[in-house]
Amino acid sequence: MSENLTPDEVDIEVFGQNSVFEGPEKLLEIWFEPSKDAIPNSLFQNDTEYSLKNGLRLVERVVWDKFLELVKCEVLNVINNDYMDAYLLSESSMFIYPHKLILKTCGTTTLLVALPRLLEIASEYCHLHKVWRVFYSRKTFMFPERQLHPHKNWNEEIKFLDQLFGKGAAYTVGKINGDHWFLWIASSPDGILKDPSHNDTCCPTFSCPLDEIDEKKPSILDLEDQTIEILMTELSSTTLSKFYHNPLEGESGTEGGLRIGQETGLCNLYPEARLDSYLFKPCGYSANGLLGDSYFNVHVTPEPICSYASFESNIPVNSGSFMDVIRQVIAIFEPGKFSVTVFKSQEGSFDKKLLVEFIDVIDGYSRKDRILYDLDGYDLIFGHFEKKK
């Protein structure tokens, strides 16, 4: 977050010493298998040290550190449980399951540049040679001119992903002349990526044999998947002040993160979760939370000229509970504007019409946009709200 600003991310001409930072994140989720049970058993036989780990979780920390250098970020702390490892990064978060990885980075990080190396790691260290699903998404950037290749524009990102995995489906969700959200997804009705093209200029050493159909058929439980994101801008001045480090109030880092979580109520979003949080100098906040086989994260960029906060979670909730989560988060940050995306697999019983109806009324806010997409195996609900004057 703000502790690692590059020289061209600092604008001391605006708001005195306040800096400019790109808060909106790039979000990648890549699945190598439908579930951890589909990972080859040979990876963890006769290995007592990693008796509770397999697949991507076997990769050593030093390998991930080098991988993240390509992204232009570093690890601050790591927590784990029986299901996953959660990496708190200098620019957001990374979650590693045995069969999938979620990487979320802000600022001018080069997330997609590191994708070929991720495929190499999965193949070389874990014998995971097939990509099963890929999702890449982001909000519109506040300062797109500061981004580096291949993140300078959405078309450039689409081209990079299409070259690496074969042509996926790219979407622009929301009003082009207002707040909108980008999504690139590669999947197929049976959950297998078939015959994607491979571009050696993108990934010169990784062989990507994804044209073979996987004979393992996942169960409905394996396929069920849901994620909610709340992306907030124009945070209230009262909110902003809470996420600045004040030496008179205590330490920054993990101690400061713990204090901020208690003072703001963020630690009460999921009281039973294991929380790992960090307060940056001079400002900024990040937190990862683990609850069983699910996670949530919170990231805050409190500089007034570019204030931004995000909340993301794949902790299962029913259609009614989505609004409870949204209201809790909005009450903490009091944004001037916010967008909500709910991404839900179509397996299992779920009333998507009811969910769309719930994303409607938020006290103190006017709904400016609401869209339902029926994607390939997923439902996507997008809503945008602005504070009433």
Automatic annotation (TrEMBL):
UniProt keyword S-adenosyl-L-methionine, yes or no: yes
Record-annotated active site: S92, C106, S286, H299
Residues of the site described as Cleavage (non-hydrolytic): E91, S92
PROSITE patterns: ADOMETDC
Substrates-to-products reaction catalysed: S-adenosyl-L-methionine + H(+) = S-adenosyl 3-(methylsulfanyl)propylamine + CO2
Bilayer-spanning residue ranges: none
Stored SUPFAM superfamilies: S-adenosylmethionine decarboxylase (SSF56276)
Source organism superkingdom: Eukaryota
GO CC annotation terms, alphabetical: cytosol
Keyword terms, alphabetized: Autocatalytic cleavage, Decarboxylase, Lyase, Polyamine biosynthesis, Pyruvate, S-adenosyl-L-methionine, Schiff base, Spermidine biosynthesis, Zymogen
Sample GO molecular function, one term: adenosylmethionine decarboxylase activity
Cofactor remark: Binds 1 pyruvoyl group covalently per subunit.
Cofactor requirement: pyruvate
GO terms, biological process: spermidine biosynthetic process; spermine biosynthetic process
Coiled-coil annotated residue ranges, if any: none
Involved pathway(s): Amine and polyamine biosynthesis; S-adenosylmethioninamine biosynthesis; S-adenosylmethioninamine from S-adenosyl-L-methionine: step 1/1
Modified residues (Pyruvic acid (Ser)): S92
Positions with a binding annotation for substrate: F21, E91, F280, E303
Key word Cell wall biogenesis/degradation present: no
The protein's enzyme class: lyase
Pfam family, one: SAM_decarbox
EC numbers for this chain: 4.1.1.50
Family, as annotated: Belongs to the eukaryotic AdoMetDC family.
Protein known as: S-adenosylmethionine decarboxylase proenzyme
Originating organism: Funneliformis caledonium
